[in-house]
């Protein structure tokens, strides 16, 4: 395994507890939104994931903001790549482009199915699956060849991240899927949102034998409706009753302001528990559209 | 079996517009089992065509319309009923429509939509089981096909879109194929098959216009 070629990987290897953030491009040709988000995250997180058409909605190609936030803001990107929209040719092609633009981290995803997105009639690709994609990147990085054993001139230097869902039930097949990817050379794991530290613990114990750094996903809600949407959309997600009612009560008590104050308490505590009581090597914070909340949560994660 | 469903009547009549004399073809195998183009369905269709003023020159139920040899004989036996028709209504799969079209050189109207290769639980309960990908891996996957039964058709599942063994596609009603595979292989004591990495699939065996020619 090469590296570290990225700040994220360097910090993980050095054993520092890391935070990553998330930036979502939108349906626009303007880079203003992603740049503003990057500026708010800069200095608080070591890197930011840039999402690739999440929930199967077509937004700006994630590679462009990934490059721009590195160049303009100096915030390292984790370029997310799904195998939903591109076949092995297009993926190889984009990987070469990403290498040329100085991208150092890639998070490989299968991608939410087109059936749940904005064009249910679209033809999904899935020519490679996300595990095959890990193999493709490893070949390029380690051996300087593509899937056809053709030589890649000036091979890229990527670190490979994979995603996982600690809420998965049954969990064992999920663990075996991660195992396949780790055996192939995946280097770090970022997880789907977790709302119960015990779920994180159970998951981290189950994959401890794979010996790869895990960043547990923490996703505060922007609003009550965002919470409800999240519970509907994310497979297997369980938001404990206590969190739900505390947030609802806060919203009723003192509007948005109180809702956010309570959110900082709840998710600061969750971040703290993940940081202080689990085997996690970091936290992946998903705060699209309210990045300002990130410093408060990180501060509370340190605790007393 | 090739699973078919009958097209809505108004769509069939729309395609029949301008064709006064219609010959109807049914199939004694798959479409008969699906009750979309067997004897009773063909006879019912003949009546409906007459009700909307069509002249039905005749009908036939062919044992496998897809077998060109059988359909050639059936058309020959039907004589003028076929040659004198303005159009043929084929109540069978897409292959049947094409065989009938090639042999008759007539306008052929598909009376059915071809859904998939699947199994029959009972009439009205048909499930896809095979994508005809040309490279069977069922030995390794506990006899459950991820190509046909996983919404993403992936080889190294499950993906992140399953919850309690159900798939995000279709509103959590369908089984996640990879959880089924996991459970089956576990029962069979073959979890090593589950854990094994499966390299990318060669989709050239599934590209269109395939032929099997061996003599």
Low-confidence stretches of chain A: none
Average predicted confidence as pLDDT of chain A: 96
| Spatial shape of chain B | elongated
Question: Strand count, sense and closure of the main sheet of chain B?
Answer: 4 strands, parallel
Structural features, described:
- The complex is a heterodimer of chains A (about 300) and B (about 220).
- Chain A is of the alpha/beta class.
- Chain A is about 45% helix and about 15% strand.
- Chain A contains 10 helices and 8 strands.
- In chain A, strands 1-2-3-4-5-6-7-8 form an 8-stranded parallel beta barrel, surrounded by 6 helices.
- In chain A, helix 2 links the parallel strand 1 and strand 2.
- The N and C termini of chain A lie far apart (about 35 Å).
- Chain B has 2 domains: about 110 residues, Rossmann fold (3-Layer(aba) Sandwich), CATH 3.40.50.2300; about 80 residues, no CATH class.
- Chain B has 9 helices and 9 strands.
- In chain B, the strands form 3 sheets. Chain B has a 4-stranded parallel β-sheet, with helices on both faces.
- In chain B, strand 8 and strand 9 form a beta hairpin.
- The longest helix of chain B has 13 residues.
- The model of chain B has no long low-confidence stretch (mean pLDDT about 95).
- Classes of the chains: A alpha/beta (about 300), B alpha/beta (about 220).
């Amino acid at each position: 395994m090469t590296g570290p070629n990225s700040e994220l990987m360097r910090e993980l290897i050095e054993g520092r507890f890391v935070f990553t953030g998330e930036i979502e491009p939108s349906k626009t040709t303007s880079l203003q939104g992603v740049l503003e988000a990057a500026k708010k995250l800069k200095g608080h997180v070591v890197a930011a994931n840039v999402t690739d058409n999440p929930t199967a909605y077509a937004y700006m190609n994630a590679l462009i903001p990934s490059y721009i936030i590195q160049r303009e803001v100096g915030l390292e990107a984790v370029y997310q790549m799904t195998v939903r929209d591109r076949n092995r040719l297009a993926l190889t092609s984009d990987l070469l482009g990403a290498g040329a633009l100085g991208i150092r981290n890639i998070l490989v995803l299968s991608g939410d199915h087109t059936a749940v997105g904005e064009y249910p009639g679209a033809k999904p690709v899935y020519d490679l699956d996300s595990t095959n994609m890990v193999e493709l990147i490893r070949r390029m990085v380690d051996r300087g060849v593509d899937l056809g054993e053709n030589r890649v001139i000036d091979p890229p230097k990527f670190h490979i991240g994979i995603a996982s869902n600690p809420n998965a039930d049954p969990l064992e097949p999920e663990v075996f899927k991660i195992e396949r990817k780790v055996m192939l050379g995946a280097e770090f794991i970022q997880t789907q949102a977790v709302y119960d530290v015990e779920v994180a613990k159970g998951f981290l114990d189950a994959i401890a034998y794979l010996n790869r750094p895990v960043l547990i996903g923490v996703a505060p809600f922007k609003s009550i409706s965002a919470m409800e949407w999240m519970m509907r959309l994310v497979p297997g997600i369980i938001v404990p009753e206590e969190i739900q009612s505390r947030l609802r009560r806060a919203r009723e008590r003192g509007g948005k302001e109180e809702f956010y104050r309570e959110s900082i308490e709840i998710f600061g505590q969750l971040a703290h528990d993940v940081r202080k009581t689990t085997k996690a090597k970091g936290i992946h914070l998903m705060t699209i559209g309210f990045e300002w909340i990130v410093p408060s949560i990180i501060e509370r994660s340190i605790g007393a | 079996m090739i699973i078919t469903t009958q097209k809505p009547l108004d769509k069939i009549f729309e395609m029949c517009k301008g064709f006064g004399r219609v010959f109807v073809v049914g199939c004694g195998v798959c479409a008969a089992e699906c009750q979309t183009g067997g004897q009773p369905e063909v006879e019912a269709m003949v009546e409906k065509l007459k009700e909307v003023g069509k002249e039905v020159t005749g009908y036939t139920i062919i044992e496998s319309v897809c077998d060109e040899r059988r359909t050639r004989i059936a058309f020959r036996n039907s004589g003028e009923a076929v040659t004198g028709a303005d159009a043929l209504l084929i109540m069978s799969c897409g292959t049947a429509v094409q065989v009938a079209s090639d042999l008759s050189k007539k306008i052929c109207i598909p009376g059915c939509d071809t859904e998939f290769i699947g199994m029959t639980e009972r009439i009205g309960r048909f499930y896809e089981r095979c994508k005809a990908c040309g490279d069977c891996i069922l030995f390794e996957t506990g006899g459950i096909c991820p190509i046909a039964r996983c919404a993403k058709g992936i080889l190294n599942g499950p993906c992140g879109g399953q919850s309690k063994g159900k798939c995000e596609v279709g509103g959590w009603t369908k089984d996640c194929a990879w959880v089924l595979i996991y459970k089956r292989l576990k029962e069979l004591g073959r979890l090593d098959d589950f854990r094994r990495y499966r390299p990318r699939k060669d989709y050239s065996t599934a590209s269109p216009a395939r032929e099997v020619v061996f003599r």
